[in-house]
Known about the structure:
Layout: H1 3-18, H2 33-39, E1 53-54, E2 57-58, E3 64-70, E4 74-81, H3 85-95, E5 100-101, E6 109-112, E7 118-125, E8 128-136
Antiparallel strand pairs: 1-2, 3-4, 4-8, 5-6, 6-7, 7-8
Amino acid sequence: MKNWDVKRLAMYLTLFSGISGLSHATYANSLSVEATSKEGLSDKPSIVSCPSEFQQVKIAQDARQCQAFDEPLTSVMVYHSPASPDAMVNLYQVAHPGLKTHSPVNGRTLLSSQDKTVRVIVSPDKTGSQIDILVTSNAN
């Protein structure tokens, strides 16, 4: 994948994570934005656990702080794992052997499907890894 594609993907992920009001936003171990906006403020946060998969893409069992943005043409899941980036890349290589693993760029490893509808970015984090999953429809 060309460097500009990785930069464009990073821009999309930044835009999607920064847009407020997206439907189906969920957070594990933190406030649920969807529940808070519908019910108003409450004394207790709504805790939502991370799913085992997102748009047929596996989510690590130790996933935390899951944020999902599920829109008609593009779906994004961002989460943190205490596992190392190498362990997370291995998890996705085993779970989804059809994903091509690209050479790391600035410590970030991209795994993508042949048709580019599924992209997984594994980034190092101070306490593990950040995983960004982008699933687009063939219409994009």
